[in-house]
Design goal:
The chain starts with a helix and ends with a helix. It is globular and about 50 Å long. Helix 2 packs across helix 3. It is an alpha/beta fold. The protein has a single domain, classed as Alanine racemase (TIM Barrel, Alpha-Beta Barrel), CATH 3.20.20.10. The chain is built from 9 helices and 8 strands.
Length: 227
């Protein structure tokens, strides 16, 4: 067994244990292996170990890896997407995590329309109001969700968040819980299901699962420290 395979198994076991604590089915949580800066050969190794979902934060790096690794994987765009890169991203990724403003939503919708496709997306929340992070604050979240839900070529699937960095994972719990509450409220107001909650990374994904995460974004625990 390779070190990468061992790490993947460990992360999956931790996901299953967190689901058990929360009385959730293990299949209700999907693992995004965050492969940004990871060579395509290592992604291929992870695929051989059974990992099929990967997350990238740069469109062109992702496209290069898609070509190098071939079929068999699904790809999520997890970083901030610049509006001028929307033409490259629309219709390519299984899910774009991080629609964070009206202009980007409109551009993605236009680009998806030009490809005669519908692009699944999440809206990014920035509930802590951190100036270094993208996303809508609590007051602006519902207007953005309503806008995205009304665009014909975007499929609004839910919400994502990156909470402030903490030493104790428990300190992330209030942010995760609040996002779930806002998602539930938005689903009622929009009268449509919003099934996805992308929240939790290497240091706090177990707490996120306990609070309802359906997608966890784990890089370091799988691929090790990045240079």
């Amino acid at each position: 067994m390779t070190e990468l395979t061992r790490r993947l198994q460990d992360v999956r076991a931790r996901i299953a244990a967190a689901c058990l604590r929360a009385r959730r089915a293990p299949g209700s949580v999907r693992l995004i292996a965050v492969s940004k800066t990871v060579p395509a050969a290592v992604v291929t190794e992870a695929m051989a170990a059974g990992q099929s979902l990967f997350g990238e934060n740069r469109v062109q790096e992702a496209l290069t890896k898609m070509d190098a690794t071939g079929p068999g994987a699904a790809w999520h765009l997890i970083g901030h997407l610049q509006k001028n890169k929307a033409r490259l991203a629309a219709g390519v990724f299984e899910l774009i995590l991080g629609v964070d403003d009206r202009e980007l939503a409109g551009e993605l919708d236009r680009r998806a329309a030009s490809r005669s496709t519908t692009q699944p997306v999440l809206v990014q929340a920035n509930l802590a109001g951190e100036p270094t992070k993208q996303g809508a604050g609590e007051e602006g979240l519902m207007p953005l969700l309503e806008l995205v839900a009304g665009l014909r070529h975007l499929d609004l699937r839910g919400l994502m968040i990156i909470p402030p960095p903490v030493v104790d994972p428990e300190l992330s719990r209030p942010w995760f819980r609040r996002l779930r509450e806002l998602r539930d409220r938005a689903a009622l107001r929009l009268a449509r299901p919003l099934p996805e909650l992308s929240m939790g990374m290497t240091d706090d994904f177990e707490v996120a699962i306990e609070e309802g995460a359906t997608l966890v974004r784990v890089g370091r625990a799988i691929f090790g420290e990045r240079s």
